[in-house]
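seq:
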Amino acid sequence: MANLKDRVFIVTGATGNLGQAVTRVLFRSGARLALTDRSVEDKLAEVFADLSGSERVRAYAADLTDPVSVAAMVSAVVEDFGRIDGLVNIAGGFRAGSPVHELDLETWDFMHNLNARSVLLTSQAVIPHMIEAGSGRIVNVGAKAALSGGVNMAAYSASKAAVLRLTESMAAELKGHDITVNAVLPGTIDTPQNRAEMPKADTSKWVAPEALADVITFLCSDEARAVTGALIPVYGKG
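struct:
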């Protein structure tokens, strides 16, 4: 297991299925965690009953599509923990759309705000602190669907493709500061929601959140210090 003792990581989307898995793996690795989501403060005791009493874990509610809210959250993390060593951008979501010629702008904007704008704003707020410290780790969550378009998937695929281009651009810009920026590209994640929506699917081929969390934790560690700008497929057996 990676040794992240006392390093400070912001985890966005912390109360989701993947966010919970990443939080627990990072915690077991010794990290100090700033967990953020819209309502994470209300959910901390419920979702993380095993962690909520630890002084290594704090919750910060934030609207990750609002630059003022994001800036306030990051400032609070720095004030509480003294620094930021890593950022794991998990917050995001999926909404099926329509054929491109029928696609409504509300769906287009919703997907881009949720999946790409959130990554942009959190990264913009965190990077200056990492540059000042002279090191950092950023891991973004893309998607297999970011690599190609599909039927009724234009808004989602384009928003996740934007995450990949952000990842590559930040990696190129920050490599001189010892800040690595990488992305994982999961296939279908094995969650209760996906099982309910696809009851006939072969779930043995899906990606367990814990398996994806292990890859993310590796990218946060010193062992991955030479890896930056990578778009890592984590497809499971699918």
